[in-house]
Amino acid sequence: MAHVNANKNKGPLINKALCRCCHSIKKCRLLTAEYEFKGSKEVYSDMFMDVFGLPLHLDGDSMECCICATCVCRLREASDFRKQVLQSQQLFVASRHKENAKNVKLEVKMETTCDSDIHDNVEDAADHNDDSDIETKVYETIKTVDVTKIKSLKRTTNVMQVEQSLSTADKIRRLYTTMKRSINQAVPPAVKQTSNAIEPIDPDEMVHTNTVIIVTNTYACPFRNRISFYYCFYCNDAQFTNPTELREHTLTHDPKLFEKKLIHYNRIPLVDITRIDCRLCPEKIDDVESFKTHITSKHKKLLYPVTNEFLKFKLTPNNLTCTECNAIFTFFDALKKHMVDHFGTHTCDVCGTCFLEPGALRAHIRTHNKVDANYPCEICGKNLKSKYSMGLHVATVHEKKPTINCYKCDAAFLSYALRNRHLIEAHGDKRTFPCRLCGKVFRVRKNLAEHHRRCHVRAYNHQCVICTRSFYLPSTLQAHMATHTGERNFKCKHCDKSYLRLKSLNYHMRSHKR
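Request: output the structure for the sequence above.
Response:
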């Protein structure tokens, strides 16, 4: 029977159901339920009607009214493409109207034109508040004057008529220059921006512009991360485990460098918004949306109507809280993985897994086409997955070359454990990780994570198919299966006795040591 998960994705999930779009059985969502995605509500059956005009006959139970994550992503893309086509059509119609208006020619008969008529024509053009229209109409007038002047020079010998023609052309040119300058000064910037608003803007460019304005005008702290370490976004060398030290270090850099660094950063920016106060005034601000309102209304900065330009975090030394749903996490890696539920848009077509970035999706897809290791070590014969892994194996295992550098001095080490010990002994780092639930202290972050999953979360995901007992490790489950099959896989090296469990064999080994 299908099991409906909790509201983790702000909508119901059914663990195993039939997708109406690809006819595969996997974890699905209901077509008729309402879900939240990037701050907006969506109902997939309504999206189908809007995009395809296709009724899905959703009269059955929930098992027959489902859609998988892969098809949801494709449906969103189809819906966005439909909106793009409609918008492009509107822009095309608007541009055609504008082009037709430009084709209206100003007919001027120079033989009946006087100075007052010329002035009235240019003023009529100025009433349209469109520089291109003014330039087109006045240019037609000037061109007509030049042609008339040349013709008059050819057919007349009256010097007074020639001078009059030249004087008329000069007056038109001067009047055109004066009127264009006055119109440019009279039209405010907002009107000019509105006149160019029909030109489509790349969504990525809008996101980039908003991100740069927010980060450079606030005390928000952009950063990078790897294996639960925080790195400075600007210099990328300084490494921190304490977010407070990261924020203090980031303040030493000029925020104007952010745009230059962001251009070469092909990932979604990670930004700590613990302090989002305005740099341009003493205003205290609590969240990004309030800052957007403040920077546009008070400082007249132009922001585009887009949201979620970057991943927002509020970093603390111990517990980390999701800024979207207030879920609490012990480690940053777990929090970042959780953010996929809110912002994941890159979906695997094979299994439906979502990712934040296309690079992570490409790496995941390679796991479906996994090949056997084919880079053997020439010294010990061990097979490695890549040429880089093989070179690293030779350098660290056989040549004993230290490849892990200390970020506070020039020392180098063979392993991260040795570097961490060096940081404690040489630099006085406090690398202890207490459990917030029971107070037990660990010196390795990974051990704390395993303790949390084993003892407090009790993530026993490996279940026996015979007695339904669950275990934390697959090796423990394998040892347990021997109690059902009777296999004695743990044999003594000194005698012929064998045992069901490793623990029993170890107890027996003591008899040989006496």
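Residues 462-513 form a domain with the Double Stranded RNA Binding Domain fold (CATH 3.30.160.60).
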